[in-house]
Design goal:
The protein has about 210 residues and is of the alpha+beta class. It is built from 4 helices and 5 strands; from the N terminus they run ααααβββββ.
């Protein structure tokens, strides 16, 4: 029996936290397993069916979630890198044309170094954006079952939500803290969850 338990999603490689699910909670790919009969009697799934019957549910499915902190940092790196690259090239070109016939000035080298640094930052940011864009944003009816948190030495806090979805899948998703001004999602909250890979992007509440 133990060897029939699915532990790794064959599509995205994520670890499946619970046996008997027919869909991966992180990429929604089908799993070669049969859902347990207890799902038909799961009271949370019954509540999520009522969520899906609400008019606002369909409206929330058409909305786009805000960027995650990771995606925002990647975009910032890409933008900053392109700006530094342009400044470096401009500086190097100006210094080259103004240089004396005795040779290339020091400012030409400085401009070249700045341009290389900008190009490296741009490539890094663009690569991170491409990697994140390759993962689809999933929008599903969801119930936030449980929340835990981890604090790091730099002061950042990352929350982890165990989420039950209306499609029968269940998994834990990370949610980087946005600061003390943001109201954190409560256990038992029902609504539409927007996820990308193993990260929770946003939750739109739907009351039933």
């Amino acid at each position: 029996m133990a060897q029939d338990v699915i532990t790794i999603c064959p599509e995205c490689g994520a670890k499946i936290p619970k046996a008997g699910m027919s869909l991966c909670p992180y990429c929604a790919s089908p799993l070669k397993t049969t859902p347990g009969k207890e799902q038909d009697r799961n009271p949370i799934l019954q509540r999520l069916k009522r969520v899906e019957e609400k008019p606002e549910y369909a409206e929330h499915l058409q909305e786009s979630p805000p960027w995650s902190p990771a995606y925002q940092r990647a975009r910032n790196r890409r933008t900053q890198g392109s700006m530094i690259l342009v400044i470096g090239l401009a500086l190097a070109a100006l210094a080259f044309f103004l240089a004396s016939s005795e040779g290339i000035s020091l400012f030409t080298y400085v401009g070249g170094v700045v341009a290389i640094a900008g190009a490296a930052l741009f490539i890094r940011g663009a690569g991170e954006c491409k990697k994140l864009d390759a993962m689809p944003v999933l929008k599903r009816s969801a119930c936030l079952i449980e929340r835990r948190s981890e604090a790091f030495a730099n002061g950042n806090v990352v929350y982890f939500f165990l989420i039950q979805f209306g499609d029968g899948s269940e998994g834990e998703f990370s949610y980087p803290g946005r600061g003390v001004s943001e109201e954190l999602y409560a256990n038992g909250m029902l609504g539409v969850a927007y996820t990308r890979g193993q990260e929770l992007l946003f939750v739109k509440r739907v009351r039933v």
